[in-house]
């Protein structure tokens, strides 16, 4: 990182990522017996039931909606994502790599975000996304943009809006005030009727850019118990909270042989919330972006302090309520109105301000063998990890080739690197020093078989205005302009 303040983010990410599971992860992989139903990929997607996604899918699965994921690119060969990408492999903003390849060879962050949103499901050992009938438009950050990080992200936001995205998901972050370029790009996307969702940060003191930009849904992360996750960032810009703790997601097989890993952070919460936005846009195709946002904040569960607060924003997203509850229309984006309050948020018990018990996900086979991170082990391992990370952090002084403008400090985990994300050589968090893989290790899902070669993809969904391609199939209104 370029400044001492920025280097603190490495430590925060090491804490935010579930280190106990990482330490015992190689042992888990070796468990030979088949998993119980609870330990399949689907069984580990605890947030699906928490958000009542099975009920939501009885109403809509996101058909007709395109979500742009600005990240490290997406592994188009992963079985969970076969046929789930929009556009064509070569489509990309000028100067950017094509998005159908995940450039993150250490964590597969972009692939994970896409899988959380549109994983196609099909069996219990394949990721089911929040909006499995929607499509992801993958946009890969180059990591070496000559016009700086915020300039590249601003360009990608504009490109996504022009390419027909209904939603833009940004599990990335830059620890500085929103630049003029970012603000103008967000305003442009909003004018094109796009909903933007961005991660708040990684336990820092201020909400990151672009999440701190007016009009953007800034997302914090919650634990299984509903409490605020430590990776979250308190600030007046926070809009909504979504599950982001111990989230299983697809990764390229160069990351994990079995194609799945577990990580925590506002990156994951952002992708999950982007999927909910896609469900709402599919259910109400005639709603403009302002009313989609209004519906989400008015149907959120009011947890934390009453009304809008700096930790949960308007509350915890309620996917089923957002699809079913009557909500009065608004004339403008409620996030652009000073002191906006939801007014109709549903009261609920306050979530604990804690990460919950320091234990690992239990992975149990039919013989009774169980790998569990015990609390006392967490304390010992945590102390060792913190010591190593602090020492490593102090040794790093050289910034990467892709850095922020003067005065800016890039953090990852909602950004680059996000929780569980390790940038490969030449592709790091803008302004961040590449950490070692031990700092951000993800946790492999032991019983998921190695992905098999996928059959030929169905014809990719076309982008509006793209010559020689057919329009996307299925119900759902066109992108509103």
Rounded to the nearest angstrom, the radius of gyration is 20 Å
Q: Strands of the biggest beta sheet: in what spatial order?
A: 2-1-3-5-6-7
| Mass-distribution shape | globular
Please report which band the strand proportion falls in: under 5%, 5-15%, 15-25%, 25-35%, 35-45% or over 45%: 5-15%
Secondary-structure element series? HHHHEHEHEEHEEEEEHHEHEEEHEE
Q: Looking at this structure, what is the CATH superfamily of the domain at 36-357 and 414-427? A: Peptidase S8/S53 domain
Number of strands: 15
What CATH architecture of the domain at 36-357 and 414-427 would you give? 3-Layer(aba) Sandwich
Domain Peptidase S8/S53: 62-315
GO molecular function, one term: serine-type endopeptidase activity
Active site: 71 (charge relay system), 109 (charge relay system), 267 (charge relay system)
Biased composition (Gly residues): 405-414
Topology:
Layout: H1 4-16, H2 19-29, H3 46-50, H4 53-56, E1 66-71, H5 109-118, E2 135-140, H6 149-162, E3 167-170, E4 174-175, H7 180-191, E5 195-199, E6 217-222, E7 238-243, E8 247-250, E9 260-263, H8 266-283, H9 289-298, E10 301-302, H10 319-324, E11 346-347, E12 363-364, E13 370-371, H11 375-395, E14 409-410, E15 443-444
Parallel strand pairs: 1-2, 1-3, 3-5, 5-6, 6-7, 10-11
Antiparallel strand pairs: 4-14, 8-9, 9-15, 12-13
Write a compact overview of the structure shown.
By secondary structure, this protein is of the alpha/beta class.
Walk me through this protein's architecture:
The longest helix is centred in the C-terminal third of the chain and has 21 residues, at 375-395. The protein has a domain at 36-357 and 414-427: Rossmann fold (3-Layer(aba) Sandwich), CATH 3.40.50.200. The chain has 481 residues and is α/β, with parallel strands linked by helices. The protein contains eleven helices and 15 strands. It has helices at residues 4-16, 19-29, 46-50, 53-56, 109-118, 149-162, 180-191, 266-283, 289-298, 319-324, 375-395, and strands spanning 66-71, 135-140, 167-170, 174-175, 195-199, 217-222, 238-243, 247-250, 260-263, 301-302, 346-347, 363-364, 370-371, 409-410, 443-444. Residues 396-481 are annotated as: Disordered.
